[in-house]
C-alpha cells in the first residue's frame, strides 16, 4: 500500500509512520504539496480545509492508495487564541476522513504577533530562541514544557484517522 504524506516536515511524517506501525507492506512517500489555505490558518475551518487539501493533493501527485494531510493552525475564541491541529486521510473510495486534536491557549504576547501577520513557527523560534521548532517539538512542546510535542499531537490525530479508515475498510484491511 502506498501512503503519500502531504509534507516533508519530520514531526508530521514520523507521526504518520507511527500510526501505521502495525501495518505491513507500506511504502511512505513524503511530498511537498500546497494546502491552498493561508500559511497561518486562523480558524478550525481553514486548518481543516488545509489538511484535506494536502491529503488530496498528495494522493493525486504520488498516485497513492492513501493521502494524508496534517495542518496546524490557530483559532480565536472569547477565551483567547488556541493552537489547533487537524488531519485528513483520503483514498479513492470514500469521502475524506477528518479528525482534530487537542488545543491549548497561546500566551497573549504570541497571539498579538499572530494578529500582526507573523506565522506561529517563526514567532516560536524567536520566543524560545531556537530554530525550526515547527519541525521539532512545535509550539505545543515549548508551551507544555515537553510534556506533549508536535509529533505526539499529530500521532493522536493520525490514530483517529487510521482507526476510522480501518473501520470503513474492515474487509480490505484483514
From TrEMBL:
It comes from the Bacteria. NCBIfam families: PRK03114.1. InterPro entries: ITPase-like_fam (IPR029001), Non_canon_purine_NTPase (IPR002786), NTPase/PRRC1 (IPR026533), YjjX_NTPase (IPR050299). Residues 6-158 form the Non-canonical purine NTP phosphatase/PRRC1 domain. It comes from Aeribacillus alveayuensis. Homodimer. Phosphatase that hydrolyzes non-canonical purine nucleotides such as XTP and ITP to their respective diphosphate derivatives. Probably excludes non-canonical purines from DNA/RNA precursor pool, thus preventing their incorporation into DNA/RNA and avoiding chromosomal lesions. Binds 1 divalent metal cation per subunit; can use either Mg(2+) or Mn(2+). This is Probable inosine/xanthosine triphosphatase. HAMAP family: Non_canon_purine_NTPase_YjjX.
Amino acid at each position: 500500500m502506498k501512503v503519500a504524506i502531504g509534507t516533508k516536515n519530520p514531526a508530521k511524517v514520523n507521526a504518520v509512520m507511527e500510526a501505521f506501525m502495525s501495518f505491513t507492506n507500506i511504502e511512505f512517500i513524503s511530498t511537498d504539496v500546497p494546502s491552498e489555505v493561508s500559511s497561518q490558518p486562523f480558524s478550525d475551518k481553514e486548518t481543516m480545509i488545509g489538511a484535506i487539501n494536502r491529503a488530496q493533493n498528495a494522493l493525486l501527485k504520488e498516485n497513492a492508495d492513501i493521502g494524508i494531510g496534517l495542518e496546524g493552525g490557530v483559532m480565536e475564541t472569547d477565551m483567547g487564541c488556541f493552537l489547533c491541529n487537524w488531519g485528513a486521510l483520503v483514498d479513492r473510495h470514500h469521502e475524506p476522513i477528518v479528525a482534530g486534536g487537542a488545543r491549548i491557549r497561546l500566551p497573549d504576547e504570541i497571539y498579538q504577533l499572530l494578529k500582526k501577520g507573523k506565522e506561529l513557527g517563526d514567532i516560536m523560534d524567536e520566543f524560545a530562541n531556537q530554530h525550526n521548532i515547527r519541525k521539532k517539538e512545535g509550539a505545543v512542546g515549548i508551551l507544555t514544557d515537553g510534556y506533549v510535542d508536535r509529533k505526539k499531537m499529530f500521532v493522536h490525530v493520525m490514530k483517529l484517522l487510521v482507526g476510522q479508515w480501518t473501520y470503513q475498510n474492515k474487509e480490505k484491511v484483514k
